[in-house]
Design brief:
Order of helices and strands of chain B: EEEEEEEEEEE
Structural class of chain A: mainly beta
Radius of gyration of chain B: 14 Å
Oligomer: heterodimer
Strand content of chain A: over 45%
Helix content of chain B: under 10%
Shape of chain B: globular
Order of helices and strands of chain A: EEEEEEEEEEEEE
Number of strands of chain B: 11
Helix content of chain A: under 10%
Strand content of chain B: over 45%
Number of helices of chain B: 0
Shape of chain A: globular
Largest interface: A-B, 27 and 26 residues
Largest sheet of chain A: 7 strands, mixed
Radius of gyration of chain A: 14 Å
Number of helices of chain A: 0
Number of strands of chain A: 13
């Protein structure tokens, strides 16, 4: 398997522009996560899906952020309009999560999208 | 307030030295994972610990889960430059479901040749 695929790897845009980040999870994984990573705040969970259904979006910073998962092999994270404070590395991860008895499977991360909003 | 506190935040040591980094919480976890993240890449799972007091070894890395399942440590023996990276712990709280997973902010480790 190719692992989790994210595109683009780098994105530079101007404030106010729409940004769309894409993710293809590992086939067969039924959980998909979107994270944002900065030096100040570390790795923050934005939203996660189970079987393509959004379960918890409480980490989404504001209404400018939206995420979709139209099918089991594709998800998008959209920022509209983008702001300089959105600059960060955005990771997508997929997992089988709970294996039973409170034991969790590994989260497999993509390489990330490095977003810079000028 | 960070649910999982990792310390130290930064550590720079010479090749060949030993080190220990910590992951602490006031919450009880059903399992805890350690990830390593190299520059420009996503985190990669190193180990999952489940039982209080459990010790797992991965070559020169030794992972321990606290008896009360509230904390964990990672010990590296004879550190090498290839160990450089960001070490993240992630805890799964009792109750199940993906919302029980929390990541610490990590320890940035640099091993100097």
């Amino acid at each position: 398997d190719a692992g989790v695929i994210q595109s683009p790897r780098h994105e530079v845009t101007e404030m106010g522009q729409e940004v769309t980040l894409r993710c293809k999870p590992i086939s067969g994984h039924d959980y998909l996560f979107w994270y944002r990573q900065t030096m100040m705040r570390g790795l923050e969970l934005l939203i996660y899906f189970n079987n393509n259904v959004p379960i918890d979006d409480s980490g989404m910073p504001e209404d400018r952020f939206s995420a979709k998962m139209p099918n089991a092999s594709f998800s998008t994270l959209k920022i509209q309009p983008s702001e300089p404070r959105d600059s960060a590395v955005y990771f997508c991860a997929s997992s089988l999560i709970e294996l039973g008895g409170g034991v969790y499977g590994a989260q497999y991360f993509g390489p990330g999208t490095r977003l810079l909003v000028l | 307030t960070q649910l999982l506190e990792q310390s130290p935040q930064f550590l720079s040591i010479q090749e060949g030295e030993n080190l220990t980094v910590y992951c602490n919480s006031s919450s009880v976890f059903s399992s805890l994972q350690w990830y390593r993240q190299e520059p420009g890449e996503g985190p990669v799972l190193l180990v999952t610990v489940v039982t209080g007091g459990e010790v797992k070894k991965l070559k020169r890395l030794t992972f321990q889960f606290g008896d009360a399942r509230k904390d964990s440590s990672l010990h590296i023996t004879a550190a090498q430059p290839g160990d450089t990276g960001l070490y993240l712990c992630a805890g799964a709280r009792a109750g199940g479901g993906a919302d029980g997973l929390t990541f610490g902010k990590g320890t940035h480790l640099i091993i100097q040749p």
